[in-house]
Amino acid sequence: MSERGRYMKLWLIFFCIPLFAQQPDPPGQVEPGEAAENEAYLFAHMTHQDYGRLYYSVSLDGLHWNRLNNGERVFEDYQGHPDIVKGPNGKYYIAGNTSDGSPDINIWVSDDLINWTEHSVYTPDLKATPGYSEALQRIGAPKLFYDKDSAHFVMTWHTPHKEGTDEDPERYWASQRTLYVLSKDLKNFQGPPQKLFEWDMGTIDVIIRKVEDTYYAIIKDETYPTLYWPTGKTIRTARSESLLGPYSLPSDPISPNFREAPSLIPSPNGKAWYMYYEQYPGVSYGLSIADNLNGPWYQASGYTFFSDWDKYSLPEKVRHGCMITISKGEYNNLVEEFGVDDKPSAN
């Protein structure tokens, strides 16, 4: 090969080919002929135009999501930040509240994720929380987790203890603390609320998950980001050997700054974890991926509007809620009941 030929070959390798290369797909998908460990997924969420009401999107791969019900509400009575858990009896429960200032947490129950009925109303005595008598009457984003080991539900939410001011509106958010209450049946609740974490920092949108022998609290660090607090407004994790702690200090950030409302799902083959989070207010959704909850995590490419680079997609203008695994049968029932938008999800 001539000197000029070798030069042209090197030029093609280093400058031309990468422009057209297909980037690798996220891990965790099933291979042809392989059975999925996690067959389908439901995203219960709100929208930018209709904040605090209940909408559904579904996915078969945990990466590409499509709207149900032509983008209309799926349950008119619901208000809140949707969070759904499956109980020991196979029934689903969803928690919400009409506003942060409402004294009540409302819980509904369903056999099929389609028809919901009122289950209970819980009114926590916030000022009875040990060590938190200064709590304000605010209940933010109730979340549910069922712990099989203790046969208890744990419901978490965030409550602040300082009002914001014109000079310092962020002190309201920095004063948020995560509280919880236990229940066997989500009708009877055990004692006053308790603080979940021993450490003293602002946290909201906390969800609890258990993997093998470890409990993980997935949090939003609610301190404002600065040079002195670079982890502010990011998604982080804390670990514990027991449901109620003590939890470790939070990890390094999983997400960029100004992200909230984490949702965690296992991949279809069960070998990876997909952590979604919203870039608020309703700008986009991010996705971080790891093969275990201790990391390391990397951020998948999406919302670039280039098909070779967008490795996940969600319907336009979705806002936060929760993602859960469902069976293929449940997926089919939801699609049959509500209809699915078969157009590609918009970025």
TrEMBL record:
Phylogenetic placement of the source organism: Bacteria, Pseudomonadati, Bacteroidota, Flavobacteriia, Flavobacteriales
Source organism of the structure: Salinimicrobium marinum
Source taxon at top rank: Bacteria
First and last residue of the signal peptide: 1-21
Regions crossing the membrane: none
Name assigned to this protein: Arabinosidase
Keyword list, A-Z: Signal
